[in-house]
Amino acid sequence: MNDFSFEERTLLIIRGKNRLSFLNNLSTNKVDSLEVGQTIETIFTDINARIIDLAIIGQMEEVAFIIGHQSNHSRLLTHLMQRSSLDSVEITDSSPLNQFIRQNEEHGNENWTVKDGATIVSDGPFTLTVLSKQKSISEFTEGLIESCLEEKRIKALRPGPAELTAKFTPYNIGLSHLVSETKGCYLGQEILARMQSRGKKGKQLILVMGDDLEVGVNGVTSTANNHGLAIITPLD
After folding, report:
1. Beta-carbon neighbour count of residue 211 at 10 Å?
2. pLDDT-derived band of residue 198, with 50, 70 and 90 as boundaries?
Protein backbone atom coordinates (compact mmCIF):
# COMPACT_ATOMS: atom_id res chain seq x y z
CA MET A 1 0.00 0.00 0.00
CA ASN A 2 1.19 3.51 -0.80
CA ASP A 3 0.73 5.16 2.58
CA PHE A 4 2.74 7.04 5.18
CA SER A 5 2.61 8.34 8.73
CA PHE A 6 4.22 11.15 10.67
CA GLU A 7 6.68 9.95 13.29
CA GLU A 8 7.66 11.24 16.73
CA ARG A 9 11.39 10.79 16.31
CA THR A 10 14.54 12.70 17.26
CA LEU A 11 17.79 13.67 15.58
CA LEU A 12 21.12 14.15 17.33
CA ILE A 13 24.30 15.26 15.57
CA ILE A 14 27.60 13.97 17.00
CA ARG A 15 30.86 15.78 16.19
CA GLY A 16 34.43 14.86 17.06
CA LYS A 17 37.04 12.48 15.72
CA ASN A 18 36.15 9.91 18.39
CA ARG A 19 32.42 9.99 17.65
CA LEU A 20 32.12 6.38 16.47
CA SER A 21 34.19 4.88 19.28
CA PHE A 22 32.12 6.97 21.71
CA LEU A 23 28.89 5.50 20.34
CA ASN A 24 30.41 2.03 20.11
CA ASN A 25 31.22 2.04 23.83
CA LEU A 26 27.62 2.83 24.73
CA SER A 27 25.59 0.59 22.43
CA THR A 28 25.10 -3.08 21.65
CA ASN A 29 26.02 -3.25 17.98
CA LYS A 30 29.42 -2.73 16.39
CA VAL A 31 29.38 0.82 15.03
CA ASP A 32 33.03 1.87 15.15
CA SER A 33 33.74 0.61 11.62
CA LEU A 34 30.81 2.43 10.03
CA GLU A 35 31.76 3.92 6.65
CA VAL A 36 30.60 7.27 5.28
CA GLY A 37 27.17 6.75 3.76
CA GLN A 38 26.29 3.75 5.91
CA THR A 39 23.72 3.36 8.66
CA ILE A 40 23.27 0.73 11.33
CA GLU A 41 20.72 0.00 14.01
CA THR A 42 21.90 -0.34 17.58
CA ILE A 43 20.52 -0.23 21.10
CA PHE A 44 21.66 2.06 23.87
CA THR A 45 21.52 0.28 27.22
CA ASP A 46 22.22 1.31 30.78
CA ILE A 47 24.57 -0.41 33.21
CA ASN A 48 21.84 -2.96 33.98
CA ALA A 49 21.39 -3.76 30.25
CA ARG A 50 17.98 -2.09 30.23
CA ILE A 51 16.75 -0.29 27.13
CA ILE A 52 17.47 3.40 26.76
CA ASP A 53 16.56 3.56 23.07
CA LEU A 54 16.65 1.76 19.75
CA ALA A 55 18.46 4.06 17.34
CA ILE A 56 19.65 4.42 13.77
CA ILE A 57 23.24 5.67 13.53
CA GLY A 58 24.59 7.08 10.29
CA GLN A 59 28.09 8.18 9.35
CA MET A 60 28.61 11.38 7.33
CA GLU A 61 31.83 13.09 6.24
CA GLU A 62 32.44 15.04 9.43
CA VAL A 63 29.60 14.05 11.76
CA ALA A 64 27.48 11.11 12.79
CA PHE A 65 23.74 11.26 13.35
CA ILE A 66 21.46 9.38 15.70
CA ILE A 67 17.76 8.95 14.99
CA GLY A 68 15.91 7.91 18.12
CA HIS A 69 12.39 7.89 19.52
CA GLN A 70 10.76 10.93 21.10
CA SER A 71 9.48 8.85 24.00
CA ASN A 72 13.09 8.12 25.04
CA HIS A 73 14.68 11.39 23.98
CA SER A 74 15.37 12.86 27.41
CA ARG A 75 16.93 9.66 28.74
CA LEU A 76 19.12 9.13 25.68
CA LEU A 77 20.31 12.74 25.50
CA THR A 78 21.15 12.80 29.22
CA HIS A 79 22.90 9.44 28.91
CA LEU A 80 25.10 10.68 26.06
CA MET A 81 25.77 14.15 27.47
CA GLN A 82 26.99 12.75 30.78
CA ARG A 83 29.71 10.82 28.94
CA SER A 84 30.52 13.09 25.99
CA SER A 85 33.44 14.88 27.66
CA LEU A 86 35.31 11.60 28.09
CA ASP A 87 35.67 11.23 24.31
CA SER A 88 35.73 14.94 23.43
CA VAL A 89 32.60 14.79 21.32
CA GLU A 90 30.01 17.50 20.81
CA ILE A 91 26.30 16.69 20.75
CA THR A 92 23.71 18.90 19.04
CA ASP A 93 19.99 18.24 19.38
CA SER A 94 18.47 18.98 15.96
CA SER A 95 15.13 17.36 16.74
CA PRO A 96 13.07 20.59 16.90
CA LEU A 97 14.31 21.62 13.43
CA ASN A 98 13.23 18.45 11.65
CA GLN A 99 10.20 16.39 10.79
CA PHE A 100 10.01 12.65 10.23
CA ILE A 101 7.91 10.67 7.76
CA ARG A 102 7.59 6.88 7.77
CA GLN A 103 6.71 5.32 4.42
CA ASN A 104 5.17 1.91 4.02
CA GLU A 105 8.01 0.39 2.03
CA GLU A 106 11.43 -1.05 2.78
CA HIS A 107 14.43 1.15 2.08
CA GLY A 108 16.25 -1.90 0.81
CA ASN A 109 19.81 -1.25 1.98
CA GLU A 110 21.92 -0.07 4.90
CA ASN A 111 23.01 3.20 3.29
CA TRP A 112 21.42 6.57 3.82
CA THR A 113 20.47 8.51 0.73
CA VAL A 114 19.60 12.13 0.00
CA LYS A 115 16.59 13.25 -2.01
CA ASP A 116 15.77 16.92 -2.50
CA GLY A 117 17.62 17.84 0.67
CA ALA A 118 16.02 15.13 2.83
CA THR A 119 17.87 12.22 4.40
CA ILE A 120 16.31 8.81 3.79
CA VAL A 121 17.19 5.77 5.89
CA SER A 122 16.07 2.22 6.52
CA ASP A 123 13.74 1.82 9.50
CA GLY A 124 13.18 -1.92 9.74
CA PRO A 125 10.29 -2.79 7.41
CA PHE A 126 9.80 0.91 6.63
CA THR A 127 11.58 3.85 5.07
CA LEU A 128 12.12 6.93 7.24
CA THR A 129 12.52 10.37 5.68
CA VAL A 130 14.09 13.17 7.74
CA LEU A 131 13.64 16.71 6.45
CA SER A 132 13.81 20.26 7.72
CA LYS A 133 10.59 21.78 9.01
CA GLN A 134 11.24 24.60 6.56
CA LYS A 135 10.69 22.23 3.66
CA SER A 136 7.29 21.22 2.33
CA ILE A 137 6.41 17.58 2.79
CA SER A 138 4.25 17.49 -0.35
CA GLU A 139 7.03 16.32 -2.68
CA PHE A 140 7.71 13.39 -0.35
CA THR A 141 4.08 12.38 0.20
CA GLU A 142 2.60 13.09 -3.23
CA GLY A 143 0.39 10.19 -4.24
CA LEU A 144 0.54 8.70 -0.74
CA ILE A 145 -2.24 8.43 1.82
CA GLU A 146 -1.66 9.27 5.48
CA SER A 147 -2.58 6.28 7.59
CA CYS A 148 -1.64 4.37 10.70
CA LEU A 149 1.14 1.87 10.08
CA GLU A 150 0.89 0.34 13.52
CA GLU A 151 -0.53 -2.97 12.33
CA LYS A 152 2.39 -3.57 9.97
CA ARG A 153 4.88 -2.71 12.74
CA ILE A 154 3.20 -5.18 15.05
CA LYS A 155 3.05 -7.97 12.46
CA ALA A 156 6.77 -7.44 11.79
CA LEU A 157 7.50 -7.80 15.55
CA ARG A 158 9.06 -4.36 15.41
CA PRO A 159 9.35 -2.80 18.90
CA GLY A 160 7.85 0.67 19.29
CA PRO A 161 7.70 3.17 22.16
CA ALA A 162 5.58 0.85 24.31
CA GLU A 163 8.24 -1.86 24.14
CA LEU A 164 11.31 0.39 24.15
CA THR A 165 11.29 1.09 27.86
CA ALA A 166 13.62 0.62 30.84
CA LYS A 167 11.52 -2.39 31.90
CA PHE A 168 13.18 -4.57 29.28
CA THR A 169 16.51 -5.72 27.87
CA PRO A 170 17.16 -6.10 24.12
CA TYR A 171 16.61 -9.85 24.49
CA ASN A 172 13.13 -9.32 25.93
CA ILE A 173 11.86 -7.43 22.89
CA GLY A 174 13.26 -9.38 19.97
CA LEU A 175 16.39 -7.34 19.34
CA SER A 176 19.04 -10.01 19.90
CA HIS A 177 20.21 -9.53 16.30
CA LEU A 178 21.40 -6.05 17.30
CA VAL A 179 23.55 -7.36 20.17
CA SER A 180 27.03 -8.07 18.82
CA GLU A 181 28.75 -11.08 20.35
CA THR A 182 32.18 -10.14 18.98
CA LYS A 183 32.69 -6.49 19.92
CA GLY A 184 34.46 -5.26 23.03
CA CYS A 185 32.99 -3.86 26.20
CA TYR A 186 30.04 -1.48 26.27
CA LEU A 187 27.64 -0.37 28.94
CA GLY A 188 25.46 -3.35 29.89
CA GLN A 189 27.60 -5.85 27.97
CA GLU A 190 28.48 -8.07 30.93
CA ILE A 191 24.87 -8.72 31.83
CA LEU A 192 23.83 -9.44 28.24
CA ALA A 193 26.80 -11.78 27.76
CA ARG A 194 25.87 -13.64 30.94
CA MET A 195 22.26 -13.98 29.78
CA GLN A 196 23.46 -15.30 26.44
CA SER A 197 25.92 -17.81 27.87
CA ARG A 198 23.40 -19.19 30.35
CA GLY A 199 20.59 -19.29 27.81
CA LYS A 200 18.37 -17.32 30.15
CA LYS A 201 17.09 -14.27 28.29
CA GLY A 202 13.94 -13.77 30.32
CA LYS A 203 10.70 -12.52 28.87
CA GLN A 204 10.10 -12.71 25.12
CA LEU A 205 8.22 -10.59 22.57
CA ILE A 206 5.46 -12.45 20.72
CA LEU A 207 2.68 -11.71 18.26
CA VAL A 208 -0.84 -12.23 19.60
CA MET A 209 -4.22 -12.02 17.89
CA GLY A 210 -7.77 -11.67 19.11
CA ASP A 211 -10.84 -9.45 19.34
CA ASP A 212 -10.37 -8.62 23.01
CA LEU A 213 -6.70 -7.62 23.23
CA GLU A 214 -6.08 -5.01 25.88
CA VAL A 215 -2.83 -3.23 26.64
CA GLY A 216 -1.62 -4.17 30.11
CA VAL A 217 -3.47 -7.48 30.19
CA ASN A 218 -1.53 -10.74 29.73
CA GLY A 219 1.61 -8.85 28.83
CA VAL A 220 0.11 -7.01 25.85
CA THR A 221 2.02 -3.81 25.06
CA SER A 222 0.63 -2.68 21.67
CA THR A 223 -2.52 -3.39 19.64
CA ALA A 224 -3.89 -2.60 16.19
CA ASN A 225 -6.77 -4.22 14.31
CA ASN A 226 -6.93 -7.42 16.38
CA HIS A 227 -3.15 -7.85 16.30
CA GLY A 228 -0.88 -7.16 19.23
CA LEU A 229 2.54 -7.49 20.74
CA ALA A 230 2.97 -9.10 24.14
CA ILE A 231 6.03 -9.58 26.32
CA ILE A 232 5.63 -12.76 28.30
CA THR A 233 7.66 -15.28 30.27
CA PRO A 234 7.99 -18.32 27.97
CA LEU A 235 7.04 -21.79 29.20
CA ASP A 236 10.00 -24.11 29.73
Report:
1. 5
2. confident
Strand ranges inside 60-132, DSSP E = 63-69, 90-93, 98-103, 113-115, 118-123, 126-132
9-15, strands of its sheet edge to edge: 39-45, 51-59, 63-69, 9-15, 90-93
- Going by C-beta distance under 8 Å and a sequence separation of 6 or more, which residues neighbour residue 199? none
208 DSSP assignment: E
Decide which of 220 and 2 is more confident: 220
> CB–CB of 60/67 below 8 Å?
no
Q: Is the dihedral of CA 24, 30, 36, 41 positive or negative?
A: negative
User: Please, which residues have CB within 8 angstroms of residue 29's CB and are 6 or more apart in sequence?
Assistant: 40, 41, 42, 43, 178, 179, 180, 183
Query: Domain extents for the chain?
Result: 3-232
What span, in angstroms and rounded, lies between the C-alpha atoms of 163 and 183? 25
CATH superfamily entry for domain 3-232: Probable tRNA modification gtpase trme; domain 1 (3.30.1360.120)
pTM of the model: 0.95
pLDDT-based confidence at 184, cuts 50/70/90?
confident
Per-residue pLDDT at 236: 63
pLDDT at 126: 96
